């Protein structure tokens, strides 16, 4: 049985695509006879506060579904203050160095990036000719930060760029969630080994269902992080509610602003449901006519994992984010596309969606496409050849 360590900034009981992605990877490896251990911070996302059950601890180790989980101390913060965010990352890096010093580390290590500093810490302290380091890149930082407006091209940006290049240089294999990520890495290091590792979900596809849509508004749903990158607050303000009702699930930085908007403007046909567990969310989502996947700005390298998850649920999608995600919606006929950032076009696209296009056959077609093309275990078996 081969030992393998996963280092990640996000892991259950935290919610969201990032934690689910790393859990699926860990459990998938374990089911195929790897002895898997995980290093992650004490749970704190997205609240920026360590969860009650873990407060006051420097380290918490547990055995969960045959996985060994080491949760390490972090100065938790979700503040917009860049200094506080930096301190949070440095604190987790400090905990990693402490763990590396006092514990035996397996010969194969998968490191999640971003955050860049966490990946950098692992690359610096775990470099060894006898150890294989694998970098799992889900977003291209600092490029994504620049496109989101969170970073500017200055000295700090150049430092982050150097850290990014160092990480790519000293890893043995780069796993990228998009073709754009792999192209970027190979533009810098043409001989670097890469592998396209999409964020495919790992759950049994439910039976598709359908409610009558002919005599009511189109029920559109958004589920996920209510953060700046998703732009849900702006979306709420820009939508034309003549023929739609928007339902929202999730939590994040924009939650209070969205709730206040709903209170002040009851004429907006918006329903906020709060946050649900993943299984409960799946049961809720399949009741809606269509789901929307927005990004405030097109982010190079980003492919929302919601595409693959919703496809497996058989839900038609409206994609509003540009980039590679847009190409996937078109290629696999998963729904509709509106020009990224163009809310007039978004409303125009919505107005043209007919209830006849949202029928049971369409849902079955989407789900069958997902089962055929977005299969987690087939992808995992291909990855084994690289480990």
TrEMBL record:
Sequence intervals crossing the membrane: 83-102
* Key words of the record: Membrane, Transmembrane, Transmembrane helix
Q: Does the keyword Membrane apply?
A: yes
Limits of the Glycosyl transferase family domain: 217-372
Q: Which InterPro entries match?
A: Glyco_trans_1, Glyco_trans_4-like_N, Glycosyltransferase_grp1
Name the SUPFAM superfamilies on file: UDP-Glycosyltransferase/glycogen phosphorylase
- Taking every annotated instance into account, which residue ranges of this chain make up the domain Glycosyltransferase subfamily 4-like N-terminal? 17-189
Q: Name one Pfam family in it.
A: Glycos_transf_1
From the Swiss-Prot or TrEMBL record, give the protein name. Answer: Glycosyltransferase family 4 protein
Q: Which organism is it from?
A: Algibacter agarivorans
């Amino acid at each position: 049985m081969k030992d393998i360590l996963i280092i990640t900034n996000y892991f259950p009981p935290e919610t969201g695509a990032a934690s689910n992605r790393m859990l699926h990877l860990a459990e998938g490896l374990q089911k195929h006879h790897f002895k898997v251990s995980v290093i992650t911070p004490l749970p704190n996302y997205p609240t920026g506060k360590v969860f009650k059950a873990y407060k006051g601890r420097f380290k918490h180790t547990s055995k969960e579904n045959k996985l060994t989980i080491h949760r390490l101390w972090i100065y938790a913060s979700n503040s917009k203050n860049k200094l506080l965010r930096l301190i949070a990352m440095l604190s987790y890096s400090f905990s990693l160095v402490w763990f590396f010093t006092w514990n035996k580390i397996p010969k194969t290590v998968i490191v999640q990036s971003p955050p860049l500093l966490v990946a950098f810490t692992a690359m610096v302290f775990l470099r060894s000719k006898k150890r294989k380091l694998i970098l799992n890149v889900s977003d291209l930082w600092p490029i994504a930060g620049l496109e989101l407006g969170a970073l500017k091209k200055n000295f700090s940006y150049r430092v982050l760029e150097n850290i990014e290049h160092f990480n790519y240089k000293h890893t043995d294999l780069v796993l990228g969630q998009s073709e754009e990520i792999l192209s970027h890495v190979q533009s810098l290091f043409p001989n670097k080994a890469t592998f396209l590792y999409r964020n495919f979900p790992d759950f049994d596809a439910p039976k598709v269902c359908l409610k009558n849509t002919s005599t009511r508004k189109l029920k559109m749903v958004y589920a996920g992080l209510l953060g700046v990158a998703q732009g849900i607050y702006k979306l709420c303000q820009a939508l034309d509610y003549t023929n739609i009702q928007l339902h929202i699930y999730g939590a994040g930085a924009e939650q209070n602003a969205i709730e206040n908007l709903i209170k002040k403007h009851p004429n907006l046909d918006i329903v906020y449901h709060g946050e649900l567990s993943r299984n409960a969310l799946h049961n809720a989502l399949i009741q809606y006519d269509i789901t929307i996947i927005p990004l405030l700005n097109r982010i190079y390298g980003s492919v929302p994992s919601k595409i693959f998850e919703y496809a497996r649920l058989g839900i038609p999608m409206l994609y509003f984010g540009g980039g590679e995600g847009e190409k996937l919606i078109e290629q696999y006929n998963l729904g509709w596309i509106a020009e990224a950032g163009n809310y007039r076009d978004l409303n125009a696209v919505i107005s043209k969606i007919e209830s006849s296009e949202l029928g049971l056959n369409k849902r079955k077609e989407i789900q069958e496409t997902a089962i055929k093309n977005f299969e987690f275990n087939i992808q995992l078996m291909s990855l084994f050849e690289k480990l």
